[in-house]
């Protein structure tokens, strides 16, 4: 049986493909758990400096699997599923959000087609987003009496502003790639059919930079969302010391002075 997610590696870049095209890559509880396992494995591979997540077929990720939603709804109606079971399932979903923020490397979402519901939550959790102009983003949860999860209500107002976050959450309306780029959800727009090529270009650019510095910036920027200025000034100092004492810093400085491309090793 074909796995719903597969991973390929190209140099220092890993590609994770959501691979249920017949279901528009809709996720199940088990698929979320697999995604978490794959993230842990990639994080332990020190050759990996960037991860790109993409979807096969006609969509990036069109929410949660309708069949599983129907099954769960029936069991809830029959009193066979309660709050305890829902919390356990939710842990598996939310663990992937934690892992995307905790892995050493930046994670890029390469979006085409639909990235709605769970797909939009996954996109918001990623560090960077490259999307086709015709891509569709949104949270249709209010249309079926559900709520946003996986950190969507944490990341959304921080990325697109509170007013736009409220509009998306309250209406369940979808927006296209152009609008997502305008409001700050999408970093780079790609012509339809070019999203993987554009994401690869961005991933290779980041992978060519000093890994210790890139990793530190990921942690620093995330911490900066919550910490005070004074806390961040101290944390920046410690990160600066760590990076400046690395071999990569010596190599980067030498390469700059010698007008050549640096050879970073992550040490």
Describe this structure as you would to a colleague.
This protein is an alpha/beta fold. Helix content is 51%, strand content 16%. A six-stranded mixed sheet has the order 1-2-3-5-7-10, sandwiched between helices. The protein has a four-stranded mixed sheet with strand order 4-6-8-9. α1 packs parallel to α3. The longest helix is centred in the middle third of the chain and has 20 residues. The chain starts with a strand and ends in a 9-residue tail after the last helix.
SSE arrangement:
Elements lengths: L4 E6 L2 E6 L10 H15 L6 E6 L5 E2 L3 H12 L5 H20 L4 E5 L2 E3 L1 H8 L2 E5 L3 E3 L13 H9 L1 H10 L2 E3 H6 L5 E3 L4 H13 L3 H14 L4 H16 L2 H12 L9
Parallel strand pairs: 2-3, 3-5, 4-6, 5-7, 6-8, 7-10
Antiparallel strand pairs: 1-2, 8-9
Helix pairs in contact: 1-3, 4-5, 5-6, 9-10
Mean pLDDT: 94
Tally of DSSP helical segments: 11
Tell me the number of strands.
10
Radius of gyration: 20 Å
The description of the largest β-sheet is: 6 strands, mixed
Task: Name the descriptors.
267 residues; alpha/beta; six-stranded mixed sheet; four-stranded mixed sheet
Short description:
It contains 11 helices and 10 strands. With 267 residues, it is an alpha/beta fold. The strands form 2 sheets. Strands 1-2-3-5-7-10 form a 6-stranded mixed beta sheet, sandwiched between helices.
């Amino acid at each position: 049986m074909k796995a719903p997610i597969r991973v390929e590696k190209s140099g220092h870049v890993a590609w994770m493909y959501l691979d249920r095209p017949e279901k528009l890559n809709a996720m199940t509880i088990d698929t979320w758990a697999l995604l978490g396992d794959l993230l842990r494995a990639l994080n332990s591979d020190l050759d990996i400096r960037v991860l790109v997540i993409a979807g096969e077929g006609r969509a990036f990720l069109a929410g949660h699997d309708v069949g599983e939603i129907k099954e769960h709804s029936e069991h809830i109606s029959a009193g066979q599923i309660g709050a305890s079971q829902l919390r356990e399932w939710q842990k598996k979903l939310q663990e992937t959000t934690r892992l995307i923020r905790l892995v050493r490397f930046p994670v890029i979402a390469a979006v085409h087609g639909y990235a709605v519901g769970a797909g939009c939550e996954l996109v918001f959790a990623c560090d960077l987003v490259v999307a086709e102009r015709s891509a569709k983003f949104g949270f249709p949860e209010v249309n079926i009496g559900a709520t946003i999860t996986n950190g969507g209500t944490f990341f959304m107002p921080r990325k697109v502003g509170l007013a736009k976050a409220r509009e998306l959450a309250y209406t369940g309306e979808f927006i296209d790639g152009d609008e997502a780029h305008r409001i700050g959800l999408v970093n780079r727009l790609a012509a339809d059919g070019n999203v993987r090529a554009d994401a690869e270009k961005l991933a290779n650019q980041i992978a060519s930079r000093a890994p210790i510095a890139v990793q530190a910036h990921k942690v620093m920027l995330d911490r900066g969302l919550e910490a005070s200025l004074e806390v961040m000034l101290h944390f920046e100092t410690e990160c600066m010391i760590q990076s400046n004492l690395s071999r990569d810093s010596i190599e980067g400085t030498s390469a700059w002075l010698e007008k050549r491309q640096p050879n970073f090793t992550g040490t």
